[in-house]
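Incident review: delayed structure delivery

Summary: a single-chain prediction request sat in the queue longer than the usual turnaround. Root cause was a stuck worker, restarted by the on-call engineer. No data loss occurred. The affected request and its eventual output are reproduced below so the record is complete for anyone auditing the incident later.

Affected input:
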Amino acid sequence: MKILSIDTSAIAASVAIAEEDKIIGEFFINTSLTHSQTLMPMVEQLCKNVSLSLDNIDAIAVNAGPGSFTGVRIGVAAVKGLAFANNIKCISVSTLESLAYNLSGNECIACAVMDARCSQVYNALFKISAKGISRICDDRALSITDLEKELKKYNDEIILVGDGADITFNMLDGRLSNVCVAPINNKMQRASSVAMVAFEKADKGEYISAEELMPVYLRLPQAQRELNKRMGV
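Output delivered after worker restart:
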């Protein structure tokens, strides 16, 4: 089984093609170019480089959120278009869950954090051991202050992973000695980790159609929040 996986949930973007036992190919870029400029050329070039076409793809997986509202929309829209046009099944993946898979092989608590701005992060916690990866809490948006209070409960090594890792670590200011930041090659969202989650979901039959695939937001966009505030909602 071959899965094409996509991540555009933050500044970086990546695409990968994987089988259960290997990553066939992966492109990763972290530039100021918009995902609408880079995503489809990356998909086309990756397929060309590994001598595969969409006819060879069994499912398309995407980090459907949380993340940048624009980035998530671009990734989901691209997958919906590719899947619908080629009659391919979709797999919706939590961005935070895929980040935990960056740390596979460690014995730790993965603290997936993405910058949600407004002094908040998108976050979820995962226990990683030789038995695999298990979720500790649901995806949520919370302040770093509240996250710090929760992390104080754990004595395990806690590894911060995601585009909010450095911001979170700096704000903790050394108060939690068991907290560290993932190495740079494992810190950011990656399409290969999306694929790892997707294979587990595929084993459980957790496919959806292109029509059913939707972005997953944990809070309203900034513009809507400001409008609601003005209207007293």
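Verification: The first helix runs from residue 35 to 49.
Action items: add queue-age alerting; document worker restart procedure.
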